[in-house]
Specification:
The chain is an alpha/beta fold. It has three helices and seven strands, in the order αββββαβαββ. Helix 2 packs across helix 3. The termini are close together.
């Protein structure tokens, strides 16, 4: 079943984007799992062609605007993982929850602005169905010294 809106691949192309290949897990987990009509993604890092474009802490070496762009990339990677689990993102009926983790300098308090990179992409891709609950959490360090990590919970039909 599909939702009545522009196909996701077409919307992404209009934004100059495409889903990347799903990155292989860096541990004992899978990129996405389905329970009922929900798909949960593992935390996605902002890999571009298998490489982190930058490492370090936001507010101390990583610019917050760059970090928001990395959150956008990480959300795109999470969408690729979700698609691998449900077959097509055209089945998504709602973005339920987004978790954004920001490796932060202790004095940095702009996590919500960084998380907007992911949230805004989801709104562009899914329209009203992309409106979601969210957590934007500052953390001491993330895997591979990534500045951001994004996880999604999506409802699908």
């Amino acid at each position: 079943m599909t939702v009545d809106r522009t196909p996701v691949a077409e919307t992404l192309a209009g934004l100059g984007l495409a889903l990347p290949p799903v990155a292989p897990p860096a541990g004992a987990y899978i990129p996405a799992t389905v329970s009922g009509n929900l798909v949960f993604t593992a935390g996605a890092l902002p890999f571009v062609e298998g490489v982190l474009p930058e490492t370090g802490k936001v507010g101390a070496g990583v610019d917050p605007d760059e970090a928001a762009a990395f959150a956008r990339i990480a959300a795109l990677n999470a969408l690729a993982a979700a698609e691998s689990a449900i077959g097509s993102l055209d089945r998504v009926t709602r973005v339920v929850k987004v978790g954004v983790f920001v490796a932060s300098d202790p004095s940095f308090t702009g996590q919500p602005g960084v998380a907007n990179g992911a949230s805004e992409l989801l709104g562009q891709v899914f329209g009203d169905a992309g409106r979601h609950a969210r957590s934007a959490v500052g953390v001491a360090v993330l895997p591979l010294d990534s500045p951001v990590e994004v996880e999604l919970t999506l409802e699908f039909a």
